[in-house]
Design brief:
The structure is a single chain. It is globular, with a radius of gyration of 14 Å. The chain has about 140 residues and is α+β, with helices and mostly antiparallel strands. It has one domain. Strand 1 (about 40-45) and strand 2 form a beta hairpin. The protein has helices at about 5-20, 20-35, 75-90, 95-105, 110-120; strands at about 40-45, 50-55, 60-65, 70, 125-130. Strands 3-4-2-1-5 form a five-stranded mixed beta sheet, with helices on both faces. The longest helix has 16 residues, at about 5-20. It contains five helices and five strands. It binds zinc ion. Zinc ion binds next to helix 3 and helix 5.
Length: about 140
C-alpha cells in the first residue's frame, strides 16, 4: 500500500460522515447489487476514495451516492465521481436538493447535473482502482 493510499483511506471515514445520508443509501445498493453478483472495487478519484459497484444504478446507467458509485460502464466513472465534488458542497442536503432539481428540471437540465458535467470535463483527476486491470484505458 502506497502512502497516498493510506492518506486516502484515513480520509474515507470523515468523507463518509460528511456525505452520510447518500453514503448509507449507496451502501444499501452495494448490498443489493453484490447479492446479485456485481463486482466491487476500491477506487480513487484524485484525493477521494470510492467503493465502485460495476452495475447500473436503479433505473439509470450510473449513480453517485457519497463514497459509493454504481456504474454500468467504466466510461461514466469520471462523471459519477465528479458528483462527489458537488456532494461535498451540499453535504447532507445533497439528496433533497438533487431530488428537487430533478423534479423541477429533469435529469439533463438540472443545475447540479450541468455543474457536474462541467466539472468532469475540467477536473484533472483520473480514477484508478486497487485491482489490477480495472484502470481506465488510455485513449
Ligand atoms: Zn450525473
Amino acid at each position: 500500500m502506497r502512502p497516498s493510499d493510506l492518506a486516502r483511506a484515513a480520509f474515507a471515514l470523515p468523507l463518509a460522515l460528511w456525505t452520510l445520508p447518500q453514503t448509507l443509501v449507496g451502501l444499501a445498493l452495494v448490498v443489493l447489487r453484490a447479492a446479485q453478483g456485481a463486482k466491487l472495487d476500491l477506487c480513487a478519484f484524485g484525493p477521494f476514495p470510492f467503493l465502485v459497484v460495476h452495475a447500473p444504478g436503479p433505473r439509470c446507467a450510473g449513480i453517485s451516492l457519497g463514497v459509493v458509485v454504481l456504474a454500468s460502464s467504466p466510461s461514466i466513472l469520471k462523471h459519477e465521481c465528479s458528483h462527489l465534488v458537488t456532494g461535498l458542497w451540499l453535504s447532507w442536503l445533497y439528496l433533497p436538493v438533487y431530488g428537487l432539481e430533478y423534479l423541477c428540471f429533469g435529469h439533463d437540465r438540472s443545475p447540479h447535473e450541468r455543474l457536474t458535467c462541467w466539472l468532469s470535463e475540467r477536473l484533472p483527476w483520473r480514477w484508478r482502482c486497487a485491482r489490477v486491470g480495472c484502470e481506465p484505458r488510455p485513449r
